[in-house]
Design goal:
The chain is mainly beta. It is built from two helices and 22 strands. The protein has a single domain, classed as TolB, C-terminal domain (Neuraminidase, 6 Propeller).
């Protein structure tokens, strides 16, 4: 029987994945439900990060279907405040990342969803983590305080849902979703965002359907989440991010959520959180994974 190139590629990948799982270590965490999403606007949560300015609070957002909006929630999933980004039209915001610039906490929103692969130019929105007063429930983030960074992929149009920023050097990393082998891209935030950055694949990973990623605040651990698995890398102080991602990760036992598309490290650099969408009205919880 004649074997086509695609079949050979599939068999090669299958063997690699079997080997990958055979030697991967496991790390044990205990999952605890902290709160249940009940707010009517939070039906398609796609990203989460802990707040720097407000301890025990989290920044979250929806993906397609919502405005350019982020929400601050507490550990019980109560919405503390809603923040609208002035005069920005969101298409499909798929992830949120944290970083520091001049020792100030910033947020990076990734409007990079591309389910139909019909968007060539994708956008990131960078702004300082906003503040609010206790009597405010809705706050406008001024357009003048938001930088848009436009990117395109060099080889083809892609869909991606996972972004994180390395705290060591503020390099931004994107991991594609629908490639048979997830592709990793990176870029440095430009001093002036007046042109479109062209991104080239730097590395491939032996899995697909990546929905979220994060890096610990000390830069020593990386989490990448697919719909069904969570992988963790421990980074040596002498290794770059790309060198780290080329080694075999730890596999974290994961109880699949209804449509889990968000993950974030706790500021303690050990534990982490997940939260999901609410497809078909299913319940969504904020989970904390505590390392045993």
């Amino acid at each position: 029987m004649m074997i086509t190139f695609n079949t050979k590629l599939f068999l090669s990948l299958l063997c690699f994945v079997i080997h990958y799982y055979a030697i991967a270590q496991h790390s044990i965490y205990e999952r605890k439900a902290l709160g249940k999403i009940s707010h009517s606007k939070l039906g398609e949560i796609s990203g989460i990060i802990p707040s720097t300015n407000y301890p025990h609070h989290f920044w979250i957002h929806n993906d397609s279907g919502d405005d350019a909006t982020i929400y601050l929630i507490d550990t019980l999933c109560n919405v503390t405040c809603q923040f609208n980004l002035e005069n920005l039209k969101a298409v499909d915001i798929e992830d949120i990342a944290w970083l520091k610039i001049d020792d100030k906490p910033y947020i990076l929103l990734a409007d990079i969803g591309n389910n139909k692969r019909d968007r060539e130019i994708l956008s990131f929105y960078l702004f300082e983590e906003p503040n609010f007063s206790t009597d405010q429930t809705v706050v406008m983030v001024a357009k003048s305080s938001i930088r848009e960074i436009k990117v395109r992929y060099a080889d083809k149009k892609r869909d991606a849902e996972a972004v994180f920023v390395d705290p060591v050097d503020n390099q931004v990393y994107i991991i594609s979703k629908r490639d048979l082998r997830a592709s990793v891209f990176d870029f440095k935030i430009p001093p002036l965002a007046d042109h479109v950055l062209t991104l080239y694949p730097k590395l491939t990973l032996p899995f697909t359907f990546v929905t979220a990623a994060d890096v610990s605040r000390d830069g020593r651990q990386i989490l990448i989440k697919t719909l069904t698995h969570i992988y963790q890398w421990n980074r040596k102080s002498t290794d770059s991010m790309m060198e780290t991602l080329q080694v075999y990760p730890v596999v974290i036992p994961y109880q699949v959520e209804p449509q889990g598309e968000a993950i974030a490290f706790d500021p303690n650099n050990v534990d982490f959180y997940t939260i999901s969408e609410r497809p078909l009205g299913l319940d969504s919880y904020l989970y904390r994974y505590e390392k045993r």
